[in-house]
Each structure stands twice: as C-alpha cells, then as structure tokens.
Design goal:
The protein has about 230 residues and is an alpha/beta fold. Helix content is about 30%, strand content about 20%.
C-alpha cells in the first residue's frame, strides 16, 4: 500500500485529467515530497510496433538545462585522442588498462565513449558492458573520433532515449528543484527529438500519451496534442 506522503500527494492530481505541460510540471514539483532532490521523469507512449525493426525509436538529445546530474565519463582512446579526451573533461581515459579494470569488476562511471579504432578491443567487454547498458554505440554518438564533442555534450546533459518492449520511452528531464520553466523546456526538447525520430513506417497517432512524475511521486498526464 502506498505511503501516507504518496497518498496525500496523489490527491493533488486528477488521474483522469490531461494537463498542459506547465500545469503538469507544477503539480510534479508540488508533489515531490521526498527528503532528497527527486528526479523528474517522463514516460511517452508511442504509436509504433516495438517488434518491428523499422519502427525502433532510439537516439540522443542534449537537454538545454541538463539533468541535474553530472555524469562520470570513461573514454577508451590512445595517443592524441586520449589527451583530447582528458582536455575535454573526461573523468577516466585509457585503453587496455581500463579494459582490464572493468574485467576485474570496476564500474565507477556512467557513460562510455570509444574511438572507432578501440572498438575491436572494447567489443570484448560486450557481455559485461552490454548487460549494464554501457556499451559504446555509434547511434548514441559514443563511438566517435570527435571525443571533445562527445564528452562535452554528455557533461552538458545529453541523454539517450530508447523504445522499450511496451512501446514506451522513459527518460529523466531534470530535478524537482529545477525552475518549472527549465523542466518544461527540457520536456519540449525531448519530445521534439522524438518527433524528429518518428519512423517513416509509423501509422496513425504517433505521440499517444505523455506522463511526468518525480521519483517517489504520482504521475500527471500531459496533453500530448500540444506537441503534435
């Protein structure tokens, strides 16, 4: 049974109502009652078939106001590219030495970036990194020779979105402590990216539903028509 704080917060949101983005965000901020700074999350249900390869929706977007969390970035690179990664602000840089550390159970990082020439070695970590969703991927912009851009975008608030088996996208858009306006702008940036990623084979209504919530709070439905 939900806790007392959740039940009190839930009374503030009409589960049957559909709110405009600014109203929904205001309610989420109001109902974030935890003792820590809760993450504001969005769930978007798309009108696509996740079983069809040509309807897979996946990509990245740099949120204009970041996520409120600074990600620790590991870059697999050698020589000049390793030095470039360090200058760009990567937290960890290396090649075989980093691969060895991961094989021994080290995971003090949030995102991996690799130069293409390192992928034959990094690929050996496929089972380990893949299981944690950390494997560098060209579609996510994490397999690239432009390590400066990759590191700076991740540090600035780049997030990856990916369709799940239920046909939904789940992503963070900031913290409950953010100004409401910044959360609304981050939400728009994500939904605009999803609209741009619409598969050509998708038929009917694409943005079926949008809901926002804080980590521990109830969700508020957003008027998806605002973004169509």
């Amino acid at each position: 049974m939900p806790g007392k704080k959740y039940q009190e917060a839930a009374k503030l949101i009409d589960r049957e109502a559909v709110y405009e983005p600014d109203q929904a965000i205001a309610l989420v901020k109001q109902t974030a009652k935890a003792k820590f700074d809760e993450t504001v999350e969005v769930a978007v249900r798309l009108g696509v078939d996740p079983r069809k390869q040509d309807q897979a929706v996946r990509g990245v977007v740099v949120l204009p106001h970041g996520t409120g969390k600074t990600k620790r970035v590991l870059v697999f690179a050698k020589g000049d590219k390793a030095r470039e990664a360090e200058a760009a602000g990567a937290d960890f840089v290396g090649d075989q030495d980093m691969i060895n550390r991961i094989q021994q159970g080290w995971f003090d990082f949030d995102v991996c970036v690799a130069t293409p020439d390192m992928m034959s070695e990094v690929g050996k970590l496929g089972r380990i990194l893949g299981g944690k969703g950390l494997m560098p991927n060209p579609k996510a912009g994490t397999v690239t020779f432009d390590v400066t851009k990759a590191v700076q975008e991740i540090k600035a608030g780049k997030i990856e979105y990916r369709l799940d088996k239920a046909g939904q996208i789940h992503a963070p858009i900031g913290k409950a402590s953010f100004d409401a306006e910044k959360l609304v702008e981050n939400l728009r940036a994500l939904v605009d990216a999803l609209n741009r990623a619409k598969p050509a084979s998708a038929k009917g209504v694409y943005l079926k539903s949008i809901a926002v919530s804080s980590t521990m709070g109830p969700s508020a439905r957003v008027n998806a028509a605002t973004y169509r």
